[in-house]
Amino acid sequence: MLRPLYDYAMRYQLLPPPGMVKKTVKAWVCLGANGTFLGVRQDGEDEYFCPDGGSLTHGDKCNVLVEKYEIVFWKEVQQEEIESNEENKKPQRKMLKHQFYLDSLQLAAQKVPELSTCVRLLEDEICCEQVRQELIRLKIKPSDTVSFEIAGTPIVEIPKVQEWWREFRQQFARHGAAESLCLITGERTTPVATLPLITGFQEVGGNGSLPLFCFDKAAFRSYGLKQSANAPVSAESIDAVKAALDHLMSSETLSPTLAGMRFVHWFDCYVPAECDPMQQALDGDPKNQGTEQQTEDDDGYDDDEEFDETVEAPSNPDAERDIPAKRLVSIESGEAATAIPASTQYYILLLSGVKGRARIHSYDHGNYGELEKNIQQWRNDLQMVDLGGTGFTKINSLKAMMIRLKPKQKSKKSETKKEFFERMRKELSGITPAVLHAILTDSMLPDSVAVRALRYIRNQMASASEEDKHAPVPNAMCCQWLKVWLIRKNNRKEGVIEAMYQAENTNVAYRCGAWVAVYASMQQFAMRKVKAGIVQRYYASACQMPALVLGQLSIHSVPHQDKIKSNDYLELYQEMLDVVTCDIAEIPTVLNLEQQAYFALGYRQMTAELNKRLKELKMQKAQNEEAETDEEE
Questions:
Q1: Cα distance between residue 488 and residue 444, in whole Å
Q2: Of residues 360, 406, 431, 347, the one with CA closest to residue 206
Q3: 476 Cβ partners below 8 Å, 6+ apart?
Q4: Percent of the chain whose pLDDT exceeds 90
């Protein structure tokens, strides 16, 4: 877990590599691949990570690769001049520094062969004089920093150079007596005593900054070791981990808050935001697509405004790198195609704060190909018919869907938004890791998801307001949870449940739900101003003990049928009743959890089917009346 974070920080240069600092280089001595001197390129603006010796540069040593012009291209002077300056010893010191620079470059060339061209130039006095003359012509001062550029690439950007520098600088490090292997890099190090604080825990139970792990309790210690000696890491490597987490947690895009936890995720290579499957799962559909055609119950909060808020992300190193060939455009389809390798690795951390330290709820990793397939499968499983019966309902953000698993608050006026999300954190933090694992691995959802979704639906249906224009229908998001739960519980068995209404579905509980929906629609059609309908009075009982309720509903439906004056509508309702009641040998007395899920889905899908059929019938009658009017004229 720590190594991928370390690699992330190194890959995007969130922290300078060990022993390196950002510097500007005044002039680049440009060489061809064969070592030919091509000229001098002036710079002084762009910054590069360069090896830095720090206090080692005093005396007879200097920085390697990037140093003052007067040291890199030191010109040999007469012995008499050195002796005449013996009092300040500057010429002799510069000579020693130049020799250290050349010796270091020769050692580097053994690991990085490209640097051998620089060594050959510095050993050739004629070439060095050409370079000096060019530097003088460009008015480069002796104190200005210079370096080399080989075939258009600055030597400090050659990948193997940083690796060589890390090894080279170890000879100057002061090692303590209590050395051990760093758990992140595997290198020998003197571990840091305490770990740096990670920021971004303000809204997830922390006081802003917390350590990722600590050893302040006896239970966290082993073999008498103190503090972080129990899990030794070097200062450089843990600083890189901190830089990576600070960057990731500074962005609501890279680590959104979900049920009181930060959902931190990243990849081991560049993945554009529009190609990130995680965002598809977290954000759902765009706001302008697939809305419900009829009003549904909610928590008094607008999901789009409260839970899908867009936060401007801070500077993202991924987005700042224009990497060629990352996205290909398909001319034939007109759609963007991505060049993300399927073997790209993803990493996910669920973090929160508790009692002064960070809590890691879960850690997942895998390859991009499987993730993309599983996220798409999740979206396919969520498909649910809209209330118009002709399309699909919107796929909401995961945050909004998780809210539907939270029990409804009886008194909403006394609960502020802050209290609302605090209650969500306490009640949903236990199941959120399991839900995310199911989404990422295309596995079963926990049964508690179905329990919570059904509880929400029962409360919603029983507490429908008399001012509602339409009869209440099981909440779309809760039905989406139930559909996914059923599909995965039954190992994707064919015909378990579909997005649209299934007249051929033989599940008795599904048909009972559709049966009740027909009676509810019939009452709504016959008595549009009724205040307390079948739904409010009977749904809670019918979804658990249908045998006790359906007989009473059948009796109560007789006066409703009498009030429907149009034979076409009456025949439609009778047809739908015949469809749902055929082949039912016995009505179940008690429904188990799975059957209650089928009941809710049957009710919603039948309601959508009836809305579609009633609309079609209305349009047909209007067309017939218009045709009759035309004939009379």
A1: 5
A2: 360
A3: 292, 296, 384, 386, 393, 394, 604
A4: 7
User: Tens digit of pLDDT for each residue in 396-436?
Assistant: 888 888 888 887 766 555 667 777 777 777 788 788 888 88
Structure tokens at 295: 């009003």
Cα-Cα-Cα-Cα torsion 227, 230, 235, 240, nearest 10 degrees, comes to -110
Please give the Cα distance from 100 to 104 (Å, whole number).
6
Q: How far is CA 168 from CA 18, 56, 162, 184, 397, in A?
A: 11, 13, 10, 20, 51
Contact, 548 vs 541, CB < 8 A?
yes
Structure tokens at 390: 């002709």
| Single pTM value for the model | 0.66
pLDDT of residue 317: 44
Q: How many residues does the chain have?
A: 633
Q: What is the DSSP letter of 494?
A: T
Sheet strands (E) in 271-372: 327-329, 336-338, 345-354, 357-367
Q: Tokens standing for 314?
A: 């801070």
Between helix 90-111 and helix 159-168 the angle, nearest 10°, is 120
Measure the N-to-C terminal CA separation of the chain; round to a whole number of Å.
Answer: 81
Q: Which residues contact 560 (CB under 8 A, 6 or more apart)?
A: 519, 522, 523, 525, 526, 527
Beta strands at 37-42 and 47-51: parallel, antiparallel or unpaired:
unpaired
Backbone region of residue 583 per phi and psi (left: phi > 0; alpha: psi in -120 to 50; beta: other values): left
Tokens of 542: 């019918």
Can you give the pLDDT at residue 169?
A: 76
Q: Quick one: angle between helices 593-632 and 476-489, nearest 10? A: 120
Distance CA 87, CA 102 (A): 26
Q: Which two tokens stand for residue 16?
A: 């300078």
Q: Quote the Cα angle for 225-231-234, to 5°.
A: 110
SS3 440: helix
- Residue 631's Cβ-side half-sphere holds a number of Cα atoms within 13 Å equal to 6
Q: Which of 393, 171, 366 is nearest to 278 (CA)?
A: 366
Q: Return the closest-CA partner of residue 513 out of 539, 480, 537.
A: 539
For residue 627, the number of C-alpha atoms closer than 13 Å in the C-beta half-sphere is 6
Question: Which string of DSSP letters, residue by residue, matches 577-627?
Answer: HHHHHTT-----SS--HHHHHHHHHHHHHHHHHHHHHHHHHHHHHHHHHHH
- The conformation of residue 379, written as its DSSP 8-state character, comes to H
The per-type count for the chain, helices as H runs and strands as E runs, is 22, 17
What does the pLDDT read at residue 312?
33
Are the C-beta atoms of 397 and 284 separated by less than 8 Å?
yes
The answer for residues whose C-beta is within 8 angstroms of residue 326's C-beta and 6 or more apart is: 270, 272, 338, 339, 340
CB atoms within 10 A of CB 447: 12
Alpha-carbon distance of 132 to 374, in angstroms, equals 62
Say if strands 327-329 and 336-338 run parallel, antiparallel, or are unpaired. Answer: antiparallel
User: What is the C-alpha to C-alpha distance for residues 107 and 99, in angstroms, rounded to an integer?
Assistant: 12
DSSP labels for 175-200? --SS-EE-TTT--EE---SSPPEEE-
pLDDT tens digits along 9-26: 888 878 776 677 778 889
Bridge-partner residues for 337, per DSSP? 328
Tell how strand 145-150 and strand 27-31 pair up. parallel
